[in-house]
Design brief:
Order of helices and strands: EEEEEE
Radius of gyration: 14 Å
Number of strands: 6
Strand order of the largest sheet: 1-2-3-6-5-4
Number of helices: 0
Length: 111
């Protein structure tokens, strides 16, 4: 796969009305990284078990191409001032282009 960079809108499937602008960059050697202008509501939680913060992110590039990002680890970066917004970066474990995937969350049952 060739390196690429796309600008678009990104969201978590459970909150499709909370879309964030961002840039997805892919390099075969470094993998995929998503830079978001803002932060996902469900991301950036404390993650003490080493599990991804956000299991699924949907996106649509300004060209119309759709993406699904799987198992992303997020972090905040950048300096926030009165004229800037916080930024987040997601390191993406897997990336699907041209389709939107669904992930079934395991149900928690008590005995």
């Amino acid at each position: 796969m060739e390196p690429f960079e796309v600008k678009g809108r990104w969201w978590e499937p459970q909150q499709p009305d909370k879309k964030l602008n961002g840039i997805l960059r892919f390099d075969p050697e470094d993998g995929a990284r998503l830079e978001i202008f803002g932060a996902f509501p469900c991301g950036l939680e404390s993650n003490q078990m080493g599990l991804p913060d956000i299991p699924l992110i949907h996106g649509q590039a300004i060209t119309g191409q759709v993406f699904t990002l799987l198992n992303s680890f997020t972090s905040r970066f950048g300096v926030v001032t009165q004229t800037t917004h916080p930024r987040s970066r997601a390191i993406v474990s897997s990336l699907a282009s041209g389709s939107r995937c669904r992930m079934k969350r395991p149900s928690m049952r008590s005995s």
